[in-house]
């Protein structure tokens, strides 16, 4: 009975999303559901320019980081039209994601990194949490604010070890994870773009 209920709810939620996608005003959906950074058309444009060997960031249309764009390119190559189904499944049980799904917003990736940043933080895996935080910040700068709760947890006194040196060590490893991951992602993007930093303006300063 439990599995039947789960199946019924899955069908219902998928049906709602399909109806909204095809029946609601597309202008309303696109204006409500995502920013230019999450625009699926922008992703497709970036993948097309990348595969054509053109400069992706010249026209100020594409705002996806280079490494993310490479991953989208690989995903589209192997999934083709099935990407819509993956969006359906991932968004199925989140009622707040109906409009985001209908517009095929890529914000779900940023949301997932933010969620795992908090989950690992409150599980006391601060180094991993800071790495997730850096990944989210790479996709969208706002995620960098999540470094504050990570550092707050690092400085919190625990029954296991209340020494100041231990808390400073936890803060240091958290900052190290964040900085190292950020530097690694940006340098990887620099290499992926043919040793140029022009992508920074289009992604973070547009």
Structure explained in plain terms:
With 206 residues, the chain is an all-alpha fold. It has one domain (1-204). Helix content is 70%, strand content 0%. The chain contains eleven helices and no strands. It has helices at residues 2-23, 26-33, 40-51, 66-79, 83-91, 98-102, 107-122, 126-139, 147-155, 164-192, 199-204. Helix 7 packs antiparallel against helix 8 and helix 9 (147-155) runs antiparallel to helix 10 (164-192).
The gross shape turns out to be flat
Termini separation: 52 Å
The number of distinct β-strands equals: 0
* Helix and strand composition category: mainly alpha
Report on the biggest sheet.
none
Characteristics:
about 70% helix; 11 helices; mainly alpha; about 210 residues; flat
Protein topology:
Elements: H1 2-23, H2 26-33, H3 40-51, H4 66-79, H5 83-91, H6 98-102, H7 107-122, H8 126-139, H9 147-155, H10 164-192, H11 199-204
In short:
It is found in: Endoplasmic reticulum membrane. The chain contains 11 helices and no strands.
């Amino acid at each position: 009975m439990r599995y039947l209920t789960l199946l019924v709810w899955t069908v219902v939620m998928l049906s709602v999303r399909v109806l909204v996608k095809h029946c609601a005003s597309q202008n309303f959906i696109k204006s409500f559901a995502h920013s230019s950074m999450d625009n699926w058309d922008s992703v497709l444009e970036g993948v097309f320019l990348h595969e054509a060997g053109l400069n992706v960031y010249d026209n100020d249309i594409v705002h996806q980081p280079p490494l993310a764009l490479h991953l989208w390119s690989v995903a589209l190559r192997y999934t083709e039209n099935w990407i819509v189904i993956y969006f359906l499944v991932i968004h199925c049980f989140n009622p707040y994601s109906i409009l985001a799904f209908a517009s095929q917003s890529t914000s779900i990736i940023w949301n997932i990194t933010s969620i795992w940043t908090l989950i690992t933080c409150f599980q006391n895996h601060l180094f991993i949490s800071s790495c997730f935080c850096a990944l989210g910040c790479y996709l969208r700068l706002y995620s960098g604010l999540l470094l504050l709760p990570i550092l707050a947890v690092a400085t919190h006194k625990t029954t296991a070890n209340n020494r100041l040196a231990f808390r400073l060590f936890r803060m240091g490893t958290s900052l190290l994870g964040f900085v190292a991951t950020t530097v690694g992602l940006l340098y990887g993007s620099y290499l992926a773009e043919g040793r140029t930093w022009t992508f920074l303006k289009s992604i973070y300063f547009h």
